[in-house]
């Protein structure tokens, strides 16, 4: 599991750690990690051309110190000082002493064009708002391909908002980000995360001073530990029975895909509730599923997955499923008929357009502020909200957030959301909490998307579904 902390938490931990260290020692730890990554990216440090973009804070200090160390190893180091009066004094002195040069304004373009590596030390966790003036112009030059070299962001790409993952204005787009001490939301949540490139975390000894993280990113081992493990004496009921209320005459395929996802998510039995013609299609594809016309008549379940491809006019069915008071997942059309607030375990799985409609805002606003809007909806409906998209974010009403790291554009295809809804519902029926069910499902779903993409150029939702069993098998091992 990797942890993400807020700027306030990082600053408090840095203060506590710095109180036990000699002056400047913490920055030197950060710089050592930064230099190691830069040296690894260069085809030899000696003779390499390095351009340091240094703002007036400690982020600029890191970059100047790194430039100094690279210069000592034989690199040609140039620095652009964005705020010369405020430039980090020790870092600048070290940079000059190592033979680094300050670039005159007129020579910035030439220096960037010749650079093998650009160090972005304009702003770090002290950033407020996007880049302005000359800094914005530099970021634009870098994006416009004015350098053939790698752009390495120090701590985070300058100009993105550290705590929200929002991009309030112009910002640097990096190829790599070397980040210190712990993760930041900007490095895992789009749109900011898209500007970070490859992440290189550097341990500076902060962890003992940091609180439990409010935002986490699961890894394979976390997901394996969370996946249901049916005991030796389990039966199909004890493994969980999931009800799927999905599909319609208009969208029968959504039911087929959601039931498919549910069958592969560990539940012992899947009960499908829906119109006869759709049920016939579901059973033709999945003879192991049991079907009935409505939530009331299909038999007992331990959790409901509601909404994928439900179409219009199904309010009564949704109300019947919700009335059971069981753990519930609500997707797609089901989101039109939400109760005022949930009182039991609930997982909502909107994409940005659906969440925008729920909150009465524009889709663009949701995409620009994914964390904010997922949190707002979680608080509003007292439900875990899994916001789908280029980064899938899960916000719990208790304040915890998870960000899924396995997303892939291979999933941006019709019907993959139905597979996810079925899978997550199955995990709910298997006893996972909404936060665990949603994050485990998103993780496996992303891996299935990648696996399907490795096997086919542009995988369909059916390909993603077909890849799920092997993904779950490799995560948890074979059932005994
Ligand atoms: N505190 C420490 O000991 C350590 C700090 N480290 C580095 O220090 C960074 C944080 O340094 P600072 O707190 O000095 O903050 P920054 O270097 O991120 O920013 C410095 C100043 O820039 C100004 N500023 C903010 N937004 C601006 C904008 N949009 N346009 C123009 N100016 C703006 C503000 O006055 C801010 O205080 C970290 O990101 C990391 O790189 C690392 O060296 C690790 C150790
Ligand atoms: N650009 C993207 N990168 C990664 N995943 C994406 C991207 N766009 C969509 N997805 C994922 O694809 C799935 C699409 O779900 P959804 O929008 O509900 O489609 P549908 O209703 O057609 O199934 C979600 O899991 C979502 O997170
Ligand atoms: K930076």
From TrEMBL:
This is Bifunctional NAD(P)H-hydrate repair enzyme. Residues 219-475 form the YjeF C-terminal domain. Bifunctional enzyme that catalyzes the epimerization of the S- and R-forms of NAD(P)HX and the dehydration of the S-form of NAD(P)HX at the expense of ADP, which is converted to AMP. This allows the repair of both epimers of NAD(P)HX, a damaged form of NAD(P)H that is a result of enzymatic or heat-dependent hydration. Catalyzes the dehydration of the S-form of NAD(P)HX at the expense of ADP, which is converted to AMP. Together with NAD(P)HX epimerase, which catalyzes the epimerization of the S- and R-forms, the enzyme allows the repair of both epimers of NAD(P)HX, a damaged form of NAD(P)H that is a result of enzymatic or heat-dependent hydration. InterPro entries: CARKD (IPR000631), Nnr (IPR030677), Ribokinase-like (IPR029056), YjeF_N_dom (IPR004443), YjeF_N_dom_sf (IPR036652). Binds 1 potassium ion per subunit. Keywords: ATP-binding, Isomerase, Kinase, Lyase, Metal-binding, Multifunctional enzyme, NAD, NADP, Nucleotide-binding, Potassium, Transferase. Its EC number is 4.2.1.136, 5.1.99.6. It comes from Jiangella alba. It comes from the Bacteria. Its cofactor is Mg(2+); K(+). K(+) binds at residues 59, 120, 158.
């Amino acid at each position: 599991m990797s942890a993400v902390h807020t700027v306030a938490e990082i600053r408090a931990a840095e203060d506590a750690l710095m109180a036990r260290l000699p002056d400047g020692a913490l920055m030197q730890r950060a710089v050592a990690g930064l230099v190691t990554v830069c040296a690894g990216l260069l085809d030899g440090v000696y003779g390499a051309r390095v351009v340091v973009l240094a703002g007036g804070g400690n982020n600029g200090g890191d970059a100047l110190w790194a430039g100094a160390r690279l210069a000592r190893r034989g690199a040609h180091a140039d620095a652009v000082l964005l705020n010369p009066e405020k430039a980090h004094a020790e870092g600048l002195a070290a940079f000059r002493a190592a033979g680094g040069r300050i670039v005159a304004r007129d020579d910035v373009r030439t220096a960037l064009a010749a650079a093998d590596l650009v160090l972005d030390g304009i702003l770090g966790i002290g950033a407020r708002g996007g880049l302005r003036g000359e800094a914005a112009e530099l970021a634009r030059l870098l994006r416009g391909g004015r350098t053939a070299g790698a752009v390495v962001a120090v701590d985070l790409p300058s100009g993105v908002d550290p705590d929200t993952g929002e991009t309030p204005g112009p910002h640097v787009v990096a190829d790599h980000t070397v980040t210190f001490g712990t993760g930041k939301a900007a490095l895992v949540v789009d749109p900011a995360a898209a500007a970070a490139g490859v992440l290189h975390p550097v341990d500076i000894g902060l962890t003992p001073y940091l609180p439990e993280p409010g935002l986490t990113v699961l890894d394979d081992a976390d997901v394996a530990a969370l996946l249901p493990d049916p005991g030796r004496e389990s039966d199909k009921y004890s493994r969980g029975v999931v009800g799927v209320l999905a599909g319609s005459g208009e969208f029968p395929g959504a039911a087929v895909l959601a039931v498919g996802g549910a069958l592969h998510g560990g539940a012992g039995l899947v009960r499908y509730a829906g119109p006869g013609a759709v049920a016939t299609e579901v059973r033709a594809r999945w003879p192991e599923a049991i079907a009935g016309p409505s939530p009331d008549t299909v038999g007992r379940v331990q959790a409901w997955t509601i909404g994928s491809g439900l179409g219009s006019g199904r309010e009564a069915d949704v109300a019947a499923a919700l009335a059971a008071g069981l753990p519930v997942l609500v997707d797609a059309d089901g989101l039109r008929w939400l109760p005022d607030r949930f009182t039991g375990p609930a997982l909502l799985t909107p994409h940005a357009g659906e969440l925008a409609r729920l909150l009465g805002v524009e889709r663009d606003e949701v995409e620009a502020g994914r964390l904010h809007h997922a949190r707002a909806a979680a608080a509003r409906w007292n439900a875990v909200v899994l916001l789908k998209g280029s980064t899938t974010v899960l916000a719990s009403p208790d304040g915890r957030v998870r960000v899924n790291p396995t997303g892939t554009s291979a999933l941006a295809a019709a019907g993959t959301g139905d597979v996810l809804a079925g899978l997550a519902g199955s995990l709910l029926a298997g006893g996972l909490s909404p936060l665990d069910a949603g994050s485990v499902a998103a993780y496996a779903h992303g891996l299935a998307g990648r696996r399907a993409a490795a096997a086919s150029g542009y995988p369909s939702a059916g390909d993603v579904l077909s890849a799920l069993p092997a993904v779950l098998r490799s995560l948890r091992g074979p059932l005994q």
